[in-house]
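quick q for whoever's on today - can somebody do inverse folding on this one?? i tried earlier but teh output was garbage lol. tokens:
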């Protein structure tokens, strides 16, 4: 386990050379911070890996539960180092918050004046989200199913009844994920560049679009580049980032297979966009093509947990705000870069509720819950319901704590929601799409970091570590 952690640390250190070069070419002294950080982390990680490379690398299930949170925490610490040492004069809390928000692809930020920041910092933020997004997909399709976290065992790649030879090894499967992820990013970057973004902005936004992270190089987010063509392009690639990558891999191989959660995903996007559009029309706004694009863009941005904004949608009225707050919890498909509750759980919970209601007047009815053409066993259903309880409970408990610590109601509940769902912006003037998280107290920022990481790791895979029996 340690050699894998050391290898990942060394890789992260090596990637710091890219922002070092960007700052060097721009004549910004922060290139030295990135270069020294890269050298130190590369040396330390390489040394540990070399000393332990002959040890067994296969992880047992118990070790995986320790490995996953440890990797994410270590990545957040490493990502914070150049931010803390840079000329931005960030506190340790703010540096870790920005890094954690990046690696979890949340997109909440404590930075202002993004348009004038050094290119190295902007590039590092985007890279952190891109790396985090790739890690999320690999974890969601390779590790979480084996951990049986929140119903993810439904997507075990090598179950006895659905063994697929092309994906017989996790390593090969991870390589295919990385290839599709890279190709999507390149396609997105080229599209942005051809539509008028600078090459630097295009690559930065491509990394944070496909990863559904939402970091931008401008305080105005996508609104600063908001031509209709760019917004539509971003909408398409955010949507693709919210789809299961196994579906995209099969599609690239010429295999189209119906996936239930994708239907739910599209239906929720269409329903939410229509609801927001109707509220705007009732408020006297003309239903122009441009307005429709802005509505669709912001709906897809929130439901995929990207967190971009083309404008401050909180000015669209109370009904629209309610829709966006609901979308904060929803999330994309399992096996995507999106955070949130995930669509497949809605598929299962809807059936559980319908079945429970039916049994009130047909108590002897025997029904089988299904996901597509697969019959769900009780373990999956129980796991999903426990996840739902923990997800809601975590949101409520932290929202109450934030309120006790002085946040107003809107900021407290939306801050907790956006952190656990890895969305980015909240609701209200402080942390809404027109604000940021810089004015929050340090204790609240650390708790938000915890929520981001717990939400990204699907809650149960972290909370299991709190059980005394796990350590016996």
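ok took a stab at it. sequence:
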């Amino acid at each position: 386990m340690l050699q894998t952690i050391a290898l990942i640390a060394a890789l992260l250190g090596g990637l710091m050379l890219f922002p070092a070069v960007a700052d060097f070419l721009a004549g910004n002294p922060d290139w030295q911070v990135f270069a020294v950080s890269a050298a130190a982390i590369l040396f330390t990680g390489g040394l540990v890996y070399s000393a332990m490379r002959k040890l067994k690398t296969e992880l047992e299930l118990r070790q995986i539960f320790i490995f996953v949170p440890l990797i994410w925490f270590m990545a957040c610490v490493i990502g914070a180092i150049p931010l803390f040492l840079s000329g931005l004069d960030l506190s340790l809390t703010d540096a870790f918050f920005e890094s954690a928000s990046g690696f979890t692809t949340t997109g909440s930020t404590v930075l202002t004046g993004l348009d004038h920041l050094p290119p190295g910092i902007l590039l590092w933020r985007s890279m952190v989200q891109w790396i985090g997004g790739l890690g999320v997909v690999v974890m969601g399709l390779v590790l979480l199913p084996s951990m049986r976290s929140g119903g993810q065992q439904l997507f075990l790649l090598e179950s006895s009844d659905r063994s697929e030879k092309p994906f017989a090894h996790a390593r090969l499967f991870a390589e295919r994920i990385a290839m599709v992820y890279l190709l999507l990013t390149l396609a997105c970057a080229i599209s942005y560049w051809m539509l008028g973004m600078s090459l630097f902005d295009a690559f930065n936004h491509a990394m944070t679009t496909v990863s559904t992270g939402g970091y931008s190089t401008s305080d105005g987010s996508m609104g600063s580049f908001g031509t209709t063509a760019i917004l539509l392009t971003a909408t398409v690639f955010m949507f693709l980032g919210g789809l299961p990558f196994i579906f995209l891999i099969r599609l690239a191989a010429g295999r189209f297979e119906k996936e239930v959660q994708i239907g739910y995903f599209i239906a929720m996007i269409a329903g939410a966009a229509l609801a927001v559009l109707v509220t705007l029309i009732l408020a006297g706004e003309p239903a122009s093509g441009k307005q429709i694009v802005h509505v669709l863009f912001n709906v897809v941005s929130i439901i995929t947990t990207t967190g971009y904004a083309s404008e401050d949608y909180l000015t669209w009225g109370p009904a629209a705000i309610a829709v966006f707050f609901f979308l904060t919890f929803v999330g994309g498909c399992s096996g995507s870069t999106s955070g949130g509750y995930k669509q497949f759980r809605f598929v299962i919970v809807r059936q559980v509720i319908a079945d429970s209601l039916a049994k009130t007047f047909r108590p002897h009815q025997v029904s089988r819950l299904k996901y597509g053409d697969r019959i769900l066993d009780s373990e999956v259903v129980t796991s999903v319901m426990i996840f739902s309880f923990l997800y809601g409970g975590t949101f409520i408990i932290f929202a109450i704590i934030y309120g006790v610590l002085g946040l107003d109601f809107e900021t407290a509940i939306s801050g907790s929601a956006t952190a656990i769902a890895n969305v980015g912006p909240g609701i209200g003037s402080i942390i809404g799409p027109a604000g940021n998280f810089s004015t929050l107290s340090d204790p609240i920022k650390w708790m938000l970091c915890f929520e981001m990481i717990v939400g990204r790791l699907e809650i149960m895979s972290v909370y299991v570590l709190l059980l005394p029996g796990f350590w016996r």
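fwiw Confidence is low (pLDDT under 50) at residues 158-168. also Residues 119-147 form the longest helix (29 residues). so keep that in mind when u check it
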